[in-house]
What does this fold into?
Amino acid sequence: MPNTNTMRAVRLYGPADMRVERIPAPGAPGKGQVLIRIKAVGVCGSDLHTYQDGRIGDTVPDGPVILGHEFAGQVEAVGADARDGWHQPLAAGTRVAVDPAQPCGYCDLCEQGHPNLCRNLHFTGLFPDNGALCEYIQVPARTCFPIPESLSFADGAMLEMLGIGIHATDLAKIRVGDSVAILGAGPIGLSILQMVKLSGADPIYVTEKLPWRCEMARRYGATVINCDERDPVAAIDEATAGQGVDIAIEAAWADQSVQQAVDMLRLGGRLVQVGIPGDDRLTMKHSVARRKGLTIRLCRRMKHTYPRAIRLAEKGCVDLRTMITHRFGLVDVPKAFEINANYKENVIKIMIDL
It folds into this structure.
C-alpha cells in the first residue's frame, strides 16, 4: 500500500493544459479490485485527441481528468476474491498488463460476446474514469493479465496497442494472399501491419507522410508509399493494374484518408475504419462506396485480445520495442505530449516510465 495519503498525477484541464499535481491516493481495494503501482504508460493517439481538442468524439471532460490507458504495473494490494483475466487468484507483487476496458459482463452485448460494445462500459482514462498517468490506480482484478519475466513493463503497456491491431485484423477477415493497404504508420498502423503480415496477406502497402514512419513500415516488411510525394490512390491503382486492393485499413486521422481508402479498394472490397476524426465526422463519397459494394466495419477498441497479444510478444512474433522512440518520467508528461502532438524529434511511440 502507498505509505502516504497522496500521489503524483498528471491531469488535463483543457486543450494542451496538463499539470503535474499531488492528489489523494487510492485506498485499500474492495472486493474483486486490486491496487496497481503503475510502472509504464504508453501515449496513444486517442490521448492526443483529448489533449489537443479537450474532447474525443462526443466525450467532453467536465473537469480535470487523468489520461493514460496503455499501462502495466505491479499489484500492490488485492481485495477479496481478486481474480485475474484468466480467473486465477491475483497476489501482491504480480507483474501485470491491464486491459483498460471494464465491461459489466451482464448486459446483452456482453453476453453475446461483444464486451467492447458493453452498454455499461467504463474505460480507464476516458472521462469520467481517470487513467494511468499517476503512481497508483485501482482496477477490477479481471482486467489484469500477468506478464512473464521475459516481457518488460513497457512491453506490457504496448499490449493494448497490439490488441487494437489484433482486433482490426480480425474485423478485416484476412485470407492468405489477400492484398492490403494500411493508411497511417503510427503505432497502431505499425501494429496492424505486423498482424496483417502474420495473417498471410501479400502484398501489403502502407501510406504515410512522415519519413521516419515510412522507414519503420519498410523495416516491418511493407511496400511504402509516401503520400506527401505521390498520390497514394494512383500508386495503388498502378500497383494493382487498376483492380484495387482486397482490404483497406484506415489507421490515420480519418480525414481525407477515409476517401483514399475507399478509392483504393476493389469491387466488393472491405474497409476497416480504425482512425478517429478530430471533427467527429466520417466522410466518404457515397456513390463510390455503394457502387463498389464495399463492406465497411468500424473498429471499437478490442475484445479479450490480451492472451493472444501476450503469447505473440513472448514468442517474439512481434516487434514492440523498436517503436518506442522516446521515454519520459511522470513529471515530464506535459513535454512528452507536446512533442507527440506536434510530431517532433521523429517521434513514433512515447513511453512514460514510473
Observations:
- The first strand starts at residue 6 and ends at 14.
- The chain has a mean pLDDT of 96.
- Residues 153-172 form the longest helix (20 residues).
- The CA atoms of residues 35 and 239 lie 52 Å apart.
